[in-house]
Specification:
This protein is α+β, with helices and mostly antiparallel strands. The chain folds into two domains: 239 residues, DD-peptidase/beta-lactamase superfamily (Beta-lactamase, 3-Layer(aba) Sandwich), CATH 3.40.710; 89 residues, Peptidoglycan synthesis regulatory factor (PBP3), Domain 2 (Sandwich), CATH 2.60.410.10. Helix content is 35%, strand content 27%. It has eleven helices and 17 strands. It has a six-stranded mixed β-sheet with strand order 14-16-17-12-11-15, with no helix packed on it. A five-stranded antiparallel β-sheet has the order 2-1-9-8-7, sandwiched between helices. Strand 5 and strand 6 form a beta hairpin.
């Protein structure tokens, strides 16, 4: 009887342990933020949300949209002159003075690393003539991205009842930004030296986003704070090719909240190979070639972040002709394969020819025509 009791205890302990392990990885994080979200960047899949559609003041996380707008419509080599209006802008600063000139790219680093409100105004005035016109450009671009519950009236995030966004929109905007290599480079920069005209030394800019030092794989993006908005942070990290974005708005412990949410997000996905380099994906006929067809092979590997239950949401689309004219060169691009998530493209690779095919000589073409005619006659009249 004692032996059975001991076995029973061991059995119960096993039952108790196994669910605990499972629940530990799937339990939703408890965060202090009033609104929060975890999003995978390439697919836009939401892994966690809390009041994610609630309109809130975004504070300086606004500058993510400022950066995207400047990258899309501005010229990085332009020299931006600081107006008196820009130099007198309230809040965090790049310490610009009236008449000071910096290249656009240096201004953008100043905006994202030290949250220079003055730099956002200088860039806006240079590109659009006024902050108001540039803010309209920001709003229009945000809506085009899919962040339709956002409205911007300024470039810095200073409080305004008509200036708002949501956790979802900020994640959506940031995911769009990560499609741009220069965006990724700027928001992941820990330290940058930019000129300081009139001084005997340069500006030493250190990124205010502590996540770059606190979290393994962190690669962005922007802090924010006003009394109205509370403490806000859009953070991001890339591990094994999985790019996650976390937004916390009005958080009492924004660093801890963000770490919890990133940790949770990475437990929900794994990188799954979909296509391997040199996979044969299509056969194409060759007209007037010494060989009748070629194979189209993938030029690159494609892997996608995938949850266990979502395999059926992914599909592939091949965009390539059914016939090509000779000559064909080995490695020549002749099409594209796209990986789709819910019918939206999330990854792609070129399709290239697996070998070269020379064009037939004149006599080869002539004999091909004769042989084709003879074959037609035999099949239809013999």
């Amino acid at each position: 009887m004692r032996q059975l009791t001991n076995l029973g205890r061991i059995f119960l302990m096993c039952l108790m342990f196994l669910p605990t392990v499972s629940l530990a990885s799937n339990a939703l994080p408890d965060v202090t933020a009033k609104a929060a979200i975890v999003m995978e960047a390439s697919t836009g899949k939401v892994l966690y949300e809390k009041n994610a559609e609630e309109r809130r003041y975004p504070a300086s996380t606004t500058k993510i949209m400022t950066l995207i707008t400047a990258l899309e419509y501005g010229k990085l080599d332009d020299v931006v002159t600081t107006s008196a209006n820009a130099a007198s802008t309230d809040g965090s600063s790049l310490w610009l003075t009236q008449g000071e000139q910096l290249k656009m790219l240096d201004m953008l680093y100043g905006i994202m690393l030290v949250s220079g409100n003055d730099a956002t105004v200088a860039v806006a005035e240079h590109m659009s003539g006024s902050v108001e016109k540039f803010a309209t450009l920001m709003t229009n671009k945000a809506h085009a991205i899919g962040a339709v519950n956002s409205n911007f009236t300024n470039t810095s995030g200073l409080p305004d009842e008509r200036h708002y966004s949501t956790a979802y929109d900020l994640a959506k905007i940031t995911a769009y930004g990560y499609k741009k290599p220069l965006f990724t480079q700027i928001v992941s920069t820990e330290h940058k030296v930019v000129p300081w005209p009139g001084k005997d030394h340069d500006r030493d800019l250190y990124n205010e986003n502590k996540m770059l030092w606190l979290y393994d794989g962190a690669n962005g993006v922007k802090t924010g704070y006003t009394d109205a908005a509370g403490r806000c942070l859009v953070s991001a990290a890339n591990r094994n090719g999985i790019q996650l974005i976390v937004v916390v708005l009005d958080s009492e412990h924004m660093w801890d909240d963000s770490i919890k949410l990133l940790d949770y997000g990475f437990t929900q996905l794994k990188q799954v190979p979909v296509i391997n380099r040199n996979d044969i994906l299509k056969t194409v006929k060759i007209k007037d070639g010494k060989t009748g067809d070629i194979k189209l092979i993938a030029a690159n590997d494609i892997s996608v972040p995938m949850a266990e239950s979502e395999h059926d949401k992914f599909s592939t689309v091949i965009d390539a002709p059914n016939k090509l004219d000779a000559p064909i060169t080995s490695g020549q691009k002749v099409g594209t394969v796209k990986v789709m998530y819910n019918n939206v493209e999330v990854a792609s690779s070129d399709l290239v020819a697996d070998r070269s095919v020379d064009r037939k000589s004149f006599f080869g073409l002539l004999w091909g025509s004769v042989w084709g005619f003879l074959t037609f006659v035999i099949r239809n009249f013999a």
